[in-house]
Amino acid sequence: MADNNSLVGGGFSLRQINDRVIIVQILVMIFLCINLLLIITFFKKECFYTTARYILFAVTLLSDSLLLFMSDILFIFAYFHFTLQVWMCIIISVVVLLYVTVTPVTLTAMTLERHVAICMPLRHGELSSTRSTMHCILIIHGLSSVPCIVVLLPFFVSASLSFCKQYRICSVEMFILYRWQDHIRSAVHQFYFLIMCIIIVFSYVKIMKVAKAASGDDKKSTRKGLRTVVLHGFQLLLCLIQFWRPFIETTVLQIDFRLFIEVRFFNYVMFNLAPRCLSPLIYGLRDETFFHVLKMYVSRRNI
């Protein structure tokens, strides 16, 4: 009998399964290699790890890399019906649940940083100091831990020690013991979605007003900041859509299991993997300073 928590089943051939696994592994390896290269570049120049927007960029790279690695492990285990002891699954799930939220929250913080830099330049140095950025990173992780706590706290209270030693196919849904728990998780995700969208729109409108009033070099810089906010908004949208995945997949599962597997694979590639390739595009290639240091590092490695 097919397990609904797995991605295997529904009449798929072994070749189809292997092709999908190979595609995902190629994408994950490419994204991880690019992220690793950018992380190394980040530490090559002092201005990167003393500037707020670059520090937050590095946080997204580390968050995305860790999430890619851990979610890929879950993907492989689910596809081939590998089982883990529940306590090991808890550790993996804590990382996944935390960092699946860290990236969108950090993107929101980066948008606010651009808003402060363009709309409040006199306060930018104070609000974007290294000390303030470190505090911001702690706040980001604190906010991102709320959905994780909502999912896992009732499980820790209710589950027995013997259950934690059992072998199961690792899935976050395994920790949803009560219907109200799923409702609260959904409410938290929707609340985050709403707040982040409001911040993005607010920042865009404010920067747009400054762009209209600016002239010369200031206008060029403001326009670039505006485009960055738009790209952040698109990346954030892709990240936030994954909060709606459980609703979509649960509905599809009730209709047809084979379609559910197709939709779940599409969601994983589109809303888990795709957003993770946009950070290098936004900062690794568009930012002139970062791109210059990256090009110098790559050139030296090729000599």
TrEMBL record:
Residues 34-283 form the G-protein coupled receptors family 1 profile domain. CDD domains: 7tm_classA_rhodopsin-like. Keywords: Membrane, Transmembrane, Transmembrane helix. The chain crosses the membrane at residues 22-43, 55-79, 85-112, 133-157, 187-205, 226-245, 265-285. The keyword Membrane applies. InterPro entries: GPCR1_Superfamily_Member, GPCR_Rhodpsn, GPCR_Rhodpsn_7TM. Pfam families: 7tm_1. One of its GO terms (molecular function) is odorant binding. It is found in: Membrane. One of its GO terms (cellular component) is membrane. It comes from Seriola lalandi dorsalis. Its main location: membrane. This is Olfactory receptor 52A5-like. The keyword Transmembrane helix applies. The lineage of its organism: Eukaryota, Metazoa, Chordata, Craniata, Vertebrata.
